[in-house]
User: Fold this.
Amino acid sequence: MSRAHPLVCSIGSTDPTCGAGIGLDIALNAMLGVRSAVVITGVTAQSSRAVTGVAPIAPKLVRLQLESIWSEARPDAIRVGLIPGASAIRAVRSFFAEHPQKLPPIILDPVLASTSGRRFNGPKDIAALTKLFECAELVTPNADEASRFAGMRVRSVEDAAEAAQIIARRAGCAVLVKGGHLTGGTCFDVLADRRGVVYIGAKRLRKTMRGTGCVLAAAIAAHRAHGLPLLDAIERARDVIAQVMRGATPLGRGRPQFTPAGSTRTSRQQMSAARPPTRDKE
Assistant:
């Protein structure tokens, strides 16, 4: 890349404990050697145990934040997280549609609920979010989210592959269905794109952590900003997840979450080599 320190634009909501959302993105980006620009789409009140409030940001202000960033610099990648409300989602999509020649890779994590179970978006919001998929390079739903977007139950790796292909065909982008919520000793993430399906497996870690979906999407965006191809970026991001989970600690009384001091050994140069993926041809 032309910049010594690539720039990632994170679009999403705040978490006061920084176990997820924009605060986590900023810390992870710094760890992975990229600079951050942020667009706040919502403010949440949450801990590791519960979400007690969500306040959407006005769509006009969401757009003004995007315009401010683009007037200063063109990001090298975009990470999209929680956007609470169809109007704000449409504002982001409208901005993207007006800048098709200036858009870097967009990694979209379609957050529908918190780890504690709080639902963030209703049917109208989900319909608007599905339209936003068309702007993305990659969408990263978990099994529950993939079930909703594909219109089928996702309970196995085979289900995940089918759902990923359904969503990819509808949206015209790559889809990575995360396997963390599935069972089995090996955790498989399933990537579907126009070339076929890739199964990316690793031994399932026993430790749990808040915000793993945020970490994965943000790490993929960071590595795309560094210039890695998409599949390589996904593999490296999975290595980041493993390292971050090993270093995760509770903020206080709750579940473990991303702890920068516990993950400082992770860097682009220190990540292990990616395992050879297997691709099934359609």
In short: The helical segments are 21-31, 59-72, 86-98, 123-132, 143-150, 157-171, 212-225, 230-247. The two ends are 34 Å apart (CA to CA). DSSP finds eight helices and twelve strands in the chain.
